[in-house]
Amino acid sequence: MSLVDLEISRRTFFTAGAATMAAAGLLPRAAHAATDGTPWYRQGAIETTFGVCDMCPWRCGIVVSSVNGEVRKIDGNPADPKSRGMLCARGQGGVSFMNDPDRLQAPMMRSGKRGEGSFEEVSWEQALDFIADKLLEIKERSGPEALAIFGHTSGEYWFTDHFSQAWGTPNAAKPSSSLCLSPREEAAQLTLGMGVGGHEPVDWDGLRCLTLIGSHIGEDTRNTVMQDFADMWGDGGKVIVVDPRFSSVATKADHWLPIKPGTDTALLLAWLNVLVTEELYDADYVRGWTTGFDRLAAHVADKSPAWAASITDLSEGQIIETARVMAERKPQSVIMPGRHVTWYGNDTQRLRATYLVNALLGAYGRRGGMYFNKAPYLEEYPHPPYAVAGSAGGCSAGAAETSDELPLGPSGKARADGARETFLRGATALQELIDPMITGDPYRIEGLIVYGTNLLNSVPNKPRTREALAALDLVVAIDVLPQEHVAWADVVLPESTYLERYDTLWSVSHKTPYIAMREPAVAPMYQTRPAWWMARELGLRVGLDAYFGWETIEEYLDRELRSVGSSLDEMRANDGIIIQNGKPYLEDYDGASPFHTPSEKIELFSQQLADAGFDPIPEYESTPEPPRGFYRLLYGRHPVHTFAKTQNTPALNERYPTNEVWINAQAAASEGIRDGQEVWLENQDGARSGPIAVKATERIRSDAVFMPHGFGQNAPGLTRAHGKGASDTELQTDYALDPISGGAGMRINFVKIVTEV
Ligand SMILES: Nc1nc2c(c(=O)[nH]1)N[C@H]1C(S)=C(S)[C@@H](COP(=O)(O)OP(=O)(O)OC[C@H]3O[C@@H](n4cnc5c(=O)[nH]c(N)nc54)[C@H](O)[C@@H]3O)O[C@H]1N2
Ligand SMILES: Nc1nc2c(c(=O)[nH]1)N[C@H]1C(S)=C(S)[C@@H](COP(=O)(O)OP(=O)(O)OC[C@H]3O[C@@H](n4cnc5c(=O)[nH]c(N)nc54)[C@H](O)[C@@H]3O)O[C@H]1N2
Ligand code: SF4
Ligand SMILES: [Mo]
User: What residues contact residue 559 under an 8 Å CB cut-off, 6+ apart?
Assistant: First the structure.
């Protein structure tokens, strides 16, 4: 039984999850009986520390209980606006993640050929001196821009933001931008003049109708979203789910629209048509806060539900009825923007269409609609101006590049990702930095630091990435596990996990902006070190002393906290959280506009896009169909795993050790494939993955297959995850570049089922 398959009543949605986790052994078991009934993990002198979970990028606040330098238990921090005292299964799995015996333990340098994976242990001095010398050589020869830095997970700030800007490379990128959020953020900037921000600002309190388009609460187990959804659903809110798959949240929906993959923009245009032609939109709001309504009305006049029905494989009646359900509950009715939105390459336009529906429903800045996020006030530790402006964007930063001029590095080079040429704007596109490593166009990237990014499991077109890794002059991998790409490094730096280190403060844009802290619960295991220490040690070796003007991390954190009248000690005494006031609703702006577009309105018609040669109002564009005998490859989350990083975590591996491929039951039968049979998947370019077991089910359309991401790993050092299941990344040899945001649409790959090796 999986969490997905559970029969869950409205009120017990969340508690059922916890009960299943306990049954599955994810929560600590009694190691030995306690005479007074105190569980074993509560026995002894408990030391409590505050932290931020890093088992996924959502970053719930945690309270960690340790005894004698050993972490015993992680709980949600009740004072934290994200966890509210609860954690998901992966958050609970943090103790097991830290204690994974396969962890990287010491700095290492390559002793064999690149990619072979032979290393010898070296001292930190040797490793850092080697990297520093190489970096200075590259800078001397080709300028600082010839270094690329990829980063994700919570220490990313130290490398992709601080070090990269101080060093002077505009080629710092995060997978959470162009492989995840970029279209959503750019569409929001263009339409509303603000980013969505890390925490989607759905005003759950009072929400009466939630529409989800290809985002699946339940498999995507962001803790807070699960809690909010359970409450909203328990209170009888309407739920509309558009997904080719009967996802866990679809099982709770009032309306499930099993759309033909890749046709969502047609559905959105038809919904706009119904809102306009039936006059169901919020006319006062549209008059006061939007521009371009007449042009939008003319544009959607011929986008009838009948037109969309023929494209989307939905019925005309379904389309009309759902538009009416949404409108009846406006403005407490929203389409959630979604998170992983790089699908077919035309994704910014789909997201714009989504926001146009929300705008006609009058949702932005309305109670029970979409509130406005605000960033907390916190001053950075002082340092000289950066050598290159503009951080890498990503989940929380949202510092996407939007002006016409791109910032230049110290030797006059702009980013090498093709921005302004192959795509319009947005955060640095990670996958577009790989070609320049091979071709030298527009200039050669010679060195790469990979911080907390699963390069060969997160980025499409693996053969190209391997070719780039072979061509580089310097590859540094900073990780906690011997992931596949680590074998390609010249130098491997082992980081301490989030339970063993301080980190920068979290300034979270939110309805109630807040600051959260992370402190070590226990001393670093093995010879591991935190990111801030590595970035500083490297910085001191390459002449960036002025950017690391602090001696200890406590001094750094205290100095930043002084700007909000606090300190580390005071934060500890106040549950590790500082909450500030937000400005969530239109009425908080005293008549001023919260929308920072050129017109200071929500731009239904985008002059910025028209000027750049793009459709000013979204058009539906078709995406290629699967060839005969092939299915579209869809992929997504599993409730107990994060991307490709937790498959080896003992407690989570025990819960779900391998993935399965969902195939429509009739389609499987017509191919003579049984439920549970082991098959291989082969894509349009002949790439193969598997073996993987078939889940033959009515819960997916017959033109697509679905598999949880992150399995089928090739790294032999991951003793539990190695070779289990199939890898979606292996099958994503192609992607479609979004010409607006630079996002990589990965749902354009097709697979056929192969039953023999
Ligand atoms: N095929 C496919 N590709 C995808 C996706 C997909 O669903 N399918 N999803 C996309 C999305 S939405 C996103 S956001 C990205 C995510 O992309 P990634 O962030 O690259 O995904 P993870 O697999 O979590 O990789 C995290 C890496 O950090 C390491 N790590 C974990 N903790 C630490 C730490 O404390 N310090 C350091 N230094 N390293 C650490 C892990 O071992 C791993 O190598 O992937 C994108 N790419
Ligand atoms: N457990 C867990 N939770 C996570 C994460 C994790 O790794 N593990 N990662 C977090 C991160 S960074 C992200 S970005 C989010 C991602 O979570 P989501 O944004 O929810 O995205 P996916 O997991 O990619 O889910 C894809 C869904 O879209 C459907 N779909 C596929 N094609 C189409 C289409 O053409 N149209 C429509 N309407 N639907 C389609 C699929 O069937 C699937 O249900 O999850 C977050 N939460
Ligand atoms: S959603 Fe789960 S894994 Fe992600 S930060 Fe919260 S508790 Fe950790
Ligand atoms: Mo993501």
Answer: 381, 382, 550
